[in-house]
Amino acid sequence: MMDASQGYHQIMLAPEDRKKVSFITSEGTFCYVAMPFGLKNAGATYQRLVDKIFHPQIGRNVEVYVDDMLVKSKKAADHVKDLEETFSVLRKYKLKLNPAKCAFGVQGGRFLGFMVTRRGIEANPLKIRAIIDMKVPTCLNEAQRLTGRIAALSRFISKSAKKSLPFFKTLRKAKTFEWGTPCQLAFEELKAYLARLPLLVKPSPGEALYLYLSLPPRLSAPYSFGKKTKNNYLYTT
Fold it and tell me: Boundaries of each Reverse transcriptase domain copy (predicted)?
């Protein structure tokens, strides 16, 4: 797992465009020579860069999102070669890493807010603990905070909209806050469910997959998983 050092600043600006990012100080007017943080298209520009330079590797032994990079290997013996291939690309395009935020040769770690391991993708324990340790909401702001935390874990929670419905009904009453029995029961059931969240895994080659459709009156939520283990939840669309 790797992190680029001052990612945006590694992209140099064209000389004719530097005046567009000038700024005034007490010492005079200055301009950036590298792409600064805060530009509207900075994120998209950096993403296009890494998508282009790592194109032959993405999906095979590299995953990259802006300045966060993950080098993955099916076998430990191949990991050094995969790292060498990645480092050669970084050297070619003169991109630098932040050593303090890099970890090499590990079997798991936090990536983009998720716990990525050789078994699959797990929910971030800190996000789970934030809900489990949460006290009963006493105002609209606290209820909104709860629904926001649920949204961050929604891909791990089967029928998350249904489980959260009592909370959203409470939020619809913008002028008053009522935490009734339905909300309390849903809150307790949610905490119990979070103690046994499923693991997101990729399907095994040749394994039969089953598509299940949830068809309430106003929405549909298809999802699939392997029959042999109900605790391995593939993905919800």
Answer: 1-116
Question: What's phi and psi for 172, nearest 5 deg?
Answer: -65, -25
Q: Is 64 exposed, middle or buried (0-12, 13-18, 19+ CB in 10 A)?
A: buried
Q: Enter the pTM of the model.
A: 0.68
Residue type, 162: K
Q: What is the DSSP letter of 179?
A: -
Q: What is the token pair recorded at 49?
A: 């860069």
Measured CA to CA, the distance from residue 232 to residue 119 in angstroms comes to: 10
Place of tokens 């809900």: 131
CA distance 224 to 211: 5
Query: Tokens representing 117?
Result: 């391991």
Nearest to 87 by CA among 53, 47, 43: 53
- The residue type of 88 is S
| Number of Cα atoms under 13 Å in the Cβ half of residue 37 | 5
C-alpha count within 13 angstroms, C-beta hemisphere, residue 71: 22
Residues of the chain with pLDDT under 70: 174, 213-237
Query: pLDDT at position 236, please?
Result: 44
Phi/psi region, residue 96 (left: phi>0; alpha: psi -120 to 50; beta: rest), is beta
Longest CA–CA separation in the chain, Å: 69
Q: Which parts of 22-75 fold into alpha helices (H)?
A: 42-53
**Which pair of structure tokens corresponds to residue 83?**
């790292």
